[in-house]
Amino acid sequence: MKTKRFLSVGLCLVVVMLAFQPVNVIAQKYFSDPQFKVKLDFNRWHDVNELYADMSRLEKAFPKFLKLQSMGKSYEGRDIMIMTINNPETGPEMSKAGMYVDANIHGNEIQGGEVCLYTIWYLMENYGRIEDVTRLVNERVFYIAPCVNPDGRQWFMETDGGNARAGHLPVDDDNDGLIDEDGPDDMNGNGIIEQIRKYVPGQGNYRISATDKRNLEPVAFGEKGDYILLGEEGIDNDSDGRVNEDDKGGYDPNRNWAIDWQPNYVQGGAMDFPFQLPEAKAENEFLMAHPNIAGVQAYHNSGGMILRGPGAESLGEYSGSDVRAYDEIGNNGQRILPFYKYMVIWSGLYTVHGGFIDWTNDGLGIMSFSNELWNSSQYFSSPDLLKEREDPNSPISGRKSGSFFDDKLEFGDQYVDWKEFDHPVYGKVEMGGEWKKFVGRIPPRFMNEELCHRNMAFTLYQADEMPKMEIGETTVKKIGDNVYRVWIDFTNKKVAPTITAKAATNNVVRPDLITFDGKQDIISASWISNKESFDYLNPITELIDQKQMKRLMIRNGHPGKTTRTLQYLVKGNGNIIITYDSVKGGKVTKTISVN
Amino acid sequence: MATLTYKKEAIVIFRNIPMYRRKLIFSTLLVLTGLFCQMNAGFTQTAGTYLNYDELTKAVKAFADSNKDFAKVESIGKTAGGREIWVLTLAKAGQMPVAERPGLLIAANFEGDHLIGSSLSIEIARYLIAGYATDEAVKASLDNHVFYIMPRLNPDGAETMFTALKTGRKTNSSALDADNDGRLDEDGPDDLNNDGQITVMRVKDANGLYRIDADEPMLMKKADPAKGERGEYSIYPEGLDNDKDGFINEDPAGGTDINRNFMHAYPYFKENAGRYMVSEIETRSLVEWMLAHKNVAMVMTFGESDNLIVPPTSRGALSTDRPLDLIQFAQAAISEASRVGMVSEGGRGGRGRFNMGDFTRGMSGPAAAETSGRSQRPAQTAATTINTSDLEYFNKASEKYKELTGIKTQPVLRNPEGAFFQYTYYQLGLPSFATPGWGLVLPADTTRRGARGGAQRPGATDTPTTGGGAFTMGGGGGGRSAGGGAAMPGAGAQQDAGSQAAGIDASYYKYLTAAKINGFVKWQTVKHPEFGDVEVGGFTPTEISNPPAEKIAELGVSHAKFALYLSTLYAEIKVAKTEVINEGGGLFRIKAEVSNEGFLPTALRQGVQARSVKPTMVQLGVKPEQIIGGNSKTNFFQALDGSGKRQKFEWLIKGKTGDQIDLKVVSQKSGTDLAKITLK
Fold it and tell me: Which residues in chain B touch residue A352, judged by CB atoms under 8 angstroms apart?
């Protein structure tokens, strides 16, 4: 006993000593990458508690930058956690454009949660090591919510994964006055809801596929097979004569937002009114309290898409200037994300009324993308293999490819084979023939880190292209007795405008303000057409027709990749302080000496 | 009724007494009338005044306190201004739980200035409670049905009607930067002529769009260049340019017009519509209440919309809005305030050193946003006209309404975009009625005169109003067309008013004159700091939306009778007939007929279409395995028309002679019924 305790105490000491030993004291020299401060795994799927625990570890490790908070509670009382990444030394949150990233609004679309976690981790571990990452963290604020439907995700992780798309607001799917009373049942307790088949030699309508023994196929007209299918694993829990007809869910959390919201009979799953879902309400309250947010990414799965709005054709295409900015980012996204296509929701995917990114784009004036993570072409991704798949005799063509991949790369881990089972109603049957829940919409675990990194890279690119105002060159020229001409260049080198055309049309973002702090009288203010040729060619100016010259409003903001020159004609000399104040493009100030 | 008359007289006397005495006398009166009224309503307010929040609160509480058998008062929510939104539940407790009885919701005063609605709903409550002892129809309705009365949905807005300065504000008190200039409520109205009324200003302006109406010099009309007319005036709301931005009263106190905040035909981003659908405490509370009270089978709202004085057209469209041009002209002067500061893109201001570089659409790589080639399902859209199958019910209600109230001509009305009663029909599938609760009484010689001030549209004439064209979705709020600049004289022409409907100024003015209502401030010249001499005048806010308070009692009775009439129309589900045939061998045939004894169908067509009214359930109380043939144990039907229409059911079951079997019918809006069947 004593020796044992002594040993364990000693072991603890060694561990403690190792942990506190600074790396450079270790005599032996290593040539590997620098050690990470927080070790996280991106090759396994986290449930909600694990996700939050990892976020909490990150917050503790990087307390200067990270702030973990709850946006509100889900229907079942789970927190909807969001991480704010901000460097306080470079200014308060509201002075910098914010990039809002969320995931997993559909409970079963889980891998976005890992992408979010990866993003926080990557930005922190590489701050101070990679110049671009350091700059981004210094210039921007990130708001990252890995799981905005924690009830759905937890349900997906805890159960067989069926019906986890929605959250858990009670919905009476079968209109019998009872709620969620008859879902499937995991009768053999293996965590998977399987298919049930019965062996009926020569009397069935299904037979085992000749090319892949895992697959059942329907027999041709006039022929007989050896199997019949009896539906999915479950019993008639509510004795109404139907099996599994009222499971959890029954609505769509991504149809409960306030642009183009349509009643249930037009848009299934919309619920009764926008922001009825506590999760959507909480998220919206957070967004509305953070007007500095200038970019949104909402991760979904799957199909390999970089989606933007509008969600319905009836909403009409965005105006040219917005499309131009979206196209620039979307097209580069296709280069960052092989197998992903940049598309508009309604024409590329399907019509969505009341979707999240329509709300953030139209209702909040935020440039918004939604990536559909994972494209099944990535299973066999080389050009040669993609070509081979077109040959029906190839073992990786069609449905066979799934079996091939599972056999040779996952070692059969993803498929549940048929096994005999004594069913209380159907008698002797076989259950199985089912892919596990992580197959199809979710990448193989070993491929997830690449998915995380590439999607993060696209989102960081979008974050980098959020508007950022600068005041450039200023020129003062005396043009009369005590009268001066002042030119000021305002530049936004980024792709996104400070205010999108949609935001300006809907009047949902406060106009940019140019304030003039000086004792001069302003005779006029105007936008000039071309500074370089102004003194040689006919000067063209666009007079600014506003009453308050010392507080100019620019309602449609400053476009991307553009410099505008503002001309003041002023009477009087002395210093003036010019401020460009944009809700999403930051606030910049310059002092100009006029004399 | 005797006490009512007494109180009416009392208030007339009351008006001639100085304010400081009034309170004392009033409280004495309260005690006295309280004693008088213990027999019936126990409601001590008079019907001759409009009630502020405290008075209204006292009134509904007094109802509940002295009529515990009938009345219960609760709050559905508390506004940003800290006021409760009351709901009065009127039903005599009995065998059928109140929550399962067909209910009529009467909701009022969504628009802050529409006080008449809250007064009428209070009068309806008074009538029903007082009538229980004496009126058979009232008794039957309170015994079998339930009335939910919400007299004031927008107490914050309504309260501004009781301040010294009348502005006619419709909105609630949520924060709104109306012109989106980064400053909150910085430019509200100012009473330039110190008459306690915010009206309009007309200013001589050679560039103005308006001129004095030759037919009625008190009124203004738009100059018609086709007739060689020139504009001589500009028109503005009464006020100063407090924030010196070139616009007058473009950002007053107040936030959302809650009858523009519901989910049907929601006017996205239009003036006072709210930040988004159901964004307000008032609207969200009401929608949540509706979802929790699925027994509500009918809705009647008082507000600035109508489908009772003028029923929907044969195509299911509502009559047009009936604005006042004078108000529209003034509003048009500030409609551009929220457009100031647009810089033309790509134009003179938008060029720059990056402009012609590599950032142009044509050079930005592959074609924009590819399509998948996937076939699209045909676009489905929400209904925007009343289903023609439902029209007869609207027509019938309208006929009866006009008969009972005698109202023939609609007063000032607005386009019901985002209005509550539209939501309850289109999305909840309920028969939903809307009325301003009063009408214009016009001298006989004004019939068949055209509308003025703009293109004539059906429904906007001086005649007793009849069905008009459909609303155009672009109408209503201030048009936000392109253009900019300040709207001072000389700074460019004013924008046209947003509404496409013609104003009813002339007929409304005739009504005021004929009824001797002090509802128009005659133009008077005042000095304005920006404009110099201006004339202030025009329609007064309270009178635009409300009849004189003396009318409350009379209108209250007729509307109570109408509400009572509506409660006789409910669908009523019954097991009309059962029959048992012994087929021998332990087999029995049960035949049953379920009928709808009421007038309305168990669900309107729109209720079926919107899947919002639950199908009626017919359930035979046997074990599933007892049923050998025929119908299932549990059956549903979508809708059954009224006036005795029947639905037949037939079962073959195993059983024994003497077995008692329940046949249960459950309908969401039409009650439940139970029949006991004995096998023999």
Answer: none
CB contact under 8 A, A562 and B350: yes
- In this model, does residue B31 exceed pLDDT 60? no
pLDDT confidence band for A25 (50 / 70 / 90): low
Chain A: nearest CA to B418, how far in angstroms? 13
The pLDDT-based confidence of B354 (bands split at 50, 70, 90) is: very low
Residue (of A240, A238, A239, A277) closest to A257 by Cα position: A277
Q: Which of A30-34, A376-380, B625-629 shows the lowest mean pLDDT across its residues?
A: A30-34
HSE toward the beta carbon, residue B72, CA cutoff 13 A? 12
- Binned at pLDDT 50, 70 and 90, residue A297 comes out as very high
Q: What is the percent of chain B where pLDDT is above 70?
A: 80
Residue A186 confidence (pLDDT): 85
How distant is the alpha carbon of residue A86 from its chain centre? 19
Nearest-CB residue to B277 (from A258, A530, A562): A258
Q: Which residue has the tokens 């947003």?
A: B498
CB-CB: which of A176, A331, A359 is closest to B366? A331
Look at the domain B68-338+385-440+447-569 and name its fold: Aminopeptidase (3.40.630)
* Cα nearest neighbour of A241 on chain B: B624
H or E element in which residue A566 lies: strand A562-571
Mutate to test the interface with B, among A176, A358, A371, A545 (most CBs of B within 10 A): A545
Contacts of A175 in chain B (CB under 8 A): 614-615, 636
Contact B621/B615 with Cβ under 8 angstroms? no
Q: Within an 8 Å CB–CB cutoff, is residue B368 touching chain A?
A: yes
- Comma-separated ranges of CATH 3.40.630.10 domains in chain B: 68-338+385-440+447-569
Among B180, B280, B376, B667, which would you mutate to test the A interface (most chain A Cβ atoms within 10 Å of its Cβ)?
B180
Distance from CA of B454 to the nearest CA of A (A): 28
Q: Which amino acid is at B441?
A: V
Predicted confidence at residue B95, as pLDDT, reads: 86
CATH, range B573-678: 2.60.40.10
Query: Would you state the pLDDT for residue A20?
Result: 55
The band of B517, judged by pLDDT with boundaries at 50, 70 and 90, is very high
Interface A:B, Cβ pairs < 8 A: 199
Structure tokens that stand for B483 in this block: 């253009």
CB contact under 8 A, A546 and B340: yes
Confidence class of residue A234 from pLDDT cuts 50, 70 and 90?
Answer: confident
Q: Do A258 and B342 touch (CB under 8 A)?
A: no
How far is B276 from chain A, CA to nearest CA, in Å?
6
First and final CA of chain B: distance in angstroms? Answer: 56
**Other Cβ atoms closer than 10 A to B284:** 20
* Helical (H) or strand (E) element with B525: strand B520-528
In angstroms, the CA B287 to CA B296 distance is 12
The per-residue pLDDT for range B442-471, each reduced to its tens digit, is 987 654 444 443 333 444 444 454 443 333
Question: Which residue ranges form the domains of chain A, and what is each CATH number?
Answer: 48-156+251-374+448-464 (3.40.630.10), 182-250+382-435 (no CATH), 469-594 (2.60.40)
Question: pTM for this one?
Answer: 0.88
Q: What is the pLDDT of residues B225-277, one digit of tens each?
A: 999 999 999 999 999 999 999 999 999 999 999 999 999 999 999 999 999 99
- Residues in B 90-119 with any Cβ partner in A closer than 8 A: none
Instruction: For residue B615, list chain A residues with Cβ-Cβ distance below 8 A.
Output: 175
Q: What is the ipTM of this complex?
A: 0.90
Which one of A230-239, A463-472, B376-385 scores highest in mean pLDDT? A463-472
The minimum CA-CA distance between A165 and chain B, rounded to whole Å, is 22
Tokens linked to B180: 């989106």
The Cβ of residue B585 has, within 10 Å, a number of other Cβ atoms equal to: 7
